[in-house]
Amino acid sequence: MPGNMIDVHCHILPDIDDGPSDFEESLEMAKIASRDGVCKIIATPHINDNKYTIQDIIKRVDQLNRLLKENSIPVIVYPGAEVSIGLDPAIIPKYTLNHTNYTLIEFPHNHLPSFAGKILSWLISKGLKPIIAHPERNYSIIRSPDLLLKLLNKDIYVQITAGSLTGDFGVDIQYCADFLLDSGKIDMIASDAHSKKFRTPVLSEAAEVASTLVGREASQRLVSTNPAAILAGEEIH
């Protein structure tokens, strides 16, 4: 893949969630991403409560971008968040991806909340475009992928984790990711990276796997075209 990939889900900001512990590690993660062909990253720290505001996130993003420039690392970072679907719905609209109407929503790993559809519909009614983060790693969806398909409509988007396609999370998750990709319901692949050693910000390997499953043009949409539309707040086609 050429060096125009965009990672829309990455825990690259330090000392805010379970991502890197300091800016030094953030820079190392950015170097890994750059070498892999990633030129832009949306920072998406976990938001499970209202402890960190979007202003806190923007401040760290600005700091990181200054350091990236000072160290001649050709990566640009943008503000975002990975928001728990269990958060007070009124708070969720504050946390969008790069100030657009796209918002990244995380389900619990161990079950699919009964209220998920209601919350997603409410967000859409407020003008937001929910992106469901890594549903292929949700235990309920692994057992029955149709549970996810029943939730989806034209205003809800789906992001799978790069490592799911490459088998890093095991056979069951890989099978679920393959099934969802083959179903045509996946809109983007992202790293969901958390460190420089484990869950690193690498997309190229998953993009190659996707190419074998759905073709190179479709794979390019998942790691470049659609992520670029999200950054710009444009429609995904």
Concise overview:
The chain is of the alpha/beta class and 237 residues long. 41% of the residues lie in helices and 16% in strands.
Sketch the major β-sheet: 6 strands, parallel
**Over the alpha carbons, how many angstroms does the gyration radius reach?**
16 Å
The pLDDT mean sits at 96
What coarse outline follows from CA principal-axis ratios?
globular
CATH level-1 class:
Alpha Beta
Characterize the structure shown:
The radius of gyration is 16 Å and the shape is globular. It contains nine helices and nine strands. With 237 residues, the protein is of the alpha/beta class. The strands form two sheets. It has a six-stranded parallel beta sheet. The protein has a three-stranded parallel beta sheet with strand order 1-2-4. Helix 8 packs across helix 9 (216-232). It has a single domain, classed as TIM Barrel (Alpha-Beta Barrel), CATH 3.20.20. It has helices at 23-36, 54-70, 116-125, 139-143, 146-151, 162-165, 171-182, 204-214, 216-232; strands at residues 5-10, 38-43, 46-47, 76-79, 82-84, 102-106, 129-133, 157-161, 188-190. Helix 1 (23-36) links the parallel strand 1 (5-10) and strand 2 (38-43).
Q: Which descriptors would you attach to this protein?
A:
single chain; 9 helices; 6-stranded parallel beta sheet; alpha/beta; TIM Barrel; globular
Secondary structure: elements and pairs:
Layout: E1 5-10, H1 23-36, E2 38-43, E3 46-47, H2 54-70, E4 76-79, E5 82-84, E6 102-106, H3 116-125, E7 129-133, H4 139-143, H5 146-151, E8 157-161, H6 162-165, H7 171-182, E9 188-190, H8 204-214, H9 216-232
Parallel strand pairs: 1-2, 2-4, 3-5, 5-6, 6-7, 7-8, 8-9
Helix pairs in contact: 8-9
